[in-house]
From TrEMBL:
Its EC number is 3.1.3.3. Its cofactor is Mg(2+). This is phosphoserine phosphatase. It catalyses: O-phospho-D-serine + H2O = D-serine + phosphate; O-phospho-L-serine + H2O = L-serine + phosphate. GO terms for biological process: L-serine biosynthetic process. It is an enzyme of class 3 (hydrolase). Keywords: Amino-acid biosynthesis, Hydrolase, Magnesium, Metal-binding, Serine biosynthesis. The keyword Iron-sulfur does not apply. SUPFAM superfamilies: HAD-like. InterPro entries: HAD-like_SerB, HAD-like_sf, HAD_sf.
Amino acid sequence: MTMKRTLLAVFALGFVLVFGNLAIAETIDSLPSWNDGKSKQSIIEFVAKVTEKGSPDFVPLEERIAVFDNDGTLWAEQPMYFQLFFALDRVKELAPQHPEWEGKEPFASLLKGDVKSALAGGEKSILEIVMATHAGMTTTEFEQNVKDWIATAKHPTTKRPYTEMVYQPMLELLTYLRANDFKTFIVSGGGIEFMRPWAEEVYGIPPEQVVGSSIKTKFEMKNGEPVLVRQPELNFIDDKAGKPVGINQHIGRRPIAAFGNSDGDLEMLQWSTAGKGSRFALYVHHTDSIREWAYDRKSSIGRLDKGLDEAQANGWTIVDMKLDWKVIYPYEK
């Protein structure tokens, strides 16, 4: 009897350990920075139905593609796109080599600290600034410039490194999707070679899974070494209708999930949700004027107007940043 009771006790203990641990694992929150609600639940339900074998919505591993806009979706974009801050800092750094800039706009205004006047020329002025600061060097040199800047530059409002201005709930979402065998891509209007040097460390997304705008490059031999030299000429704009084109060229599969925050992402969400089978689209709606910025239909940065209407009409998930996110940035945890 003693031996029998011992065996039963061991069996009972094993049962508790195995099934108790399973129960605990099931209760672990993979999205702890998300408040419980429709947005969080829609994500969990979508992932469950496309990953459960035997489900009519099951999606094979190779087709589990999720695409994310960067500016305003994975990290902040106010008061100006961060890549533009990089370009403005580069103007100051390069100014000693270009004395002619003191009498030439938009550079003259920038050197006086008058960013508003410098950008008054709109896209033409921005293009001039970008070409002057992003071209005329090898791809390796540009990569190092980006790495040096991202390691030291601070956001003008929060005084935090730009890599701390990423959204903690979205970092958790990236991890959650990859834990369920999704391959995650950045598809951004930002420069592809601006994002690649730091995207893997910050987001866990390797360089080959970054899609973005680009300028032309040219193969040359310099001092007996093969290099790629960045030319002052646009190659591809990965924004709006360009995003589905970029996805097709770089990824070669239609995503089953797409995440954005502005009208610039609308075509990407439309393209992704138009495929067969279960699909998911999510817009991050900037509604928190205290912890972040509140903006949508009338904003010159990250405008969400037509996309907001279409999301509501199509039943896409709309994240209310103020209500749906417990914290916004990693340093708030």
